[in-house]
């Protein structure tokens, strides 16, 4: 075991080339040496052990809202600059960072409407996937990310929201811009993209909410307006912020689930052969992809009182960051954790977090990934890496793991 200094939060992002190339070497070492690691630079405890993370992520007495974090929790506090006097947090942030009672008040109707839509959404996902596959020119090598993995989730959420086809291009651009809101280390250019996308999207939702109120359609925006009319205590701004959160939370992550999945299956032909032999195992395949290469690295909570975690004292208002990636490969829970095995029986992964904040989009992400992977491998029986020796090109957005490009040939 090394005696090198323990990594800080910044080193646990793809901005660190060692972490980008092999995050698990870094995380295994951290878990072994210091599973509850106080990182002063970010002002947070970094937790890497499954058996610490699982109960904490599910603990509804902990806080999520970064405004409740101590001032020393600089990474969390970056999300609440200039908001010290804020009273209605629901009108400034999405459910991702809200605590009760606002969290439940807003999440409940949103989840009700979203889950009902996802439950009947399979035929539309199949249509979107077919259309994307149809558009791929496979006569020469192509980039699966830009041709398939990026457009499918954006088009799916656009369809759920009822975005007209002629606005799809704008919608894709805004969606890319707003994701920078989750990047605490964003540079000036990324901040500018985020700042341009936010108001444009907000104007779009303001206009569309008014239009759907006047004339409802069969879409999620109309559902939310109807729930408001039926008494759900939600303001238009809250609806807007949380519909935007579906884009922020849902697009890149699902893109990466599909992209990471294709790469893993091509790298592990025996596992791909199992899927080809029986597409009925697709749900198990998707769960193993989520465990092995989760698109989201971390989530977090704030201690609401003094607690002890793995023998370490954590004081009220101190921030805890959970490495979902490290938890998913913890050898105490998963046999041979670094083996990608779609037949694995026990895989209670943490890719979607847990408890009150468990990913609201998980059913949609699973649906999209399962349809996309089955159809992709059916359509291209000889799908292969364009250059089998090329190193993967990972994106550098902190706390997300996905490919910049995935060059394939059919
Ligand atoms: C593979 C794809 C996805 C992954 C890996 C993922 C991961 C996560 C994680 C880790 C959290 C935090 C959970 C916690 O703190 O316990 C979360 C929350 C959230 N996700 Fe996802 N997500 C995915 C897809 C989606 C999709 C498709 C949507 C929208 C349609 C979405 C919307 C959200 C929202 C709104 C939250 C905040 C929920 C809350 O705080 O109550 N996500 N997601």
Portion in strands = 5-15%
Structural class by secondary-structure content: alpha+beta
CATH uppermost class = Mainly Alpha
| Unreliable parts | none
Could you characterize what this model shows?
This protein is globular. With about 400 residues, it is of the alpha+beta class. The N and C termini lie far apart (about 45 Å). The model has no long low-confidence stretch (mean pLDDT about 95). It has one domain: Orthogonal Bundle (Cytochrome p450), CATH 1.10.630. The longest helix has about 30 residues, at about 235-265. The protein contains 16 helices and eleven strands. The strands form four sheets. Strands 1-2-7-4 form a four-stranded mixed beta sheet. Strands 3-11-8 form a three-stranded antiparallel beta sheet. A two-stranded antiparallel ribbon has the order 5-6. The structure holds protoporphyrin IX containing FE. The site of protoporphyrin IX containing FE has 29 residues, from helix 12 and helix 16.
Summarize the structure.
This protein is an alpha+beta fold and 410 residues long. Helices cover 49% and strands 9% of the residues.
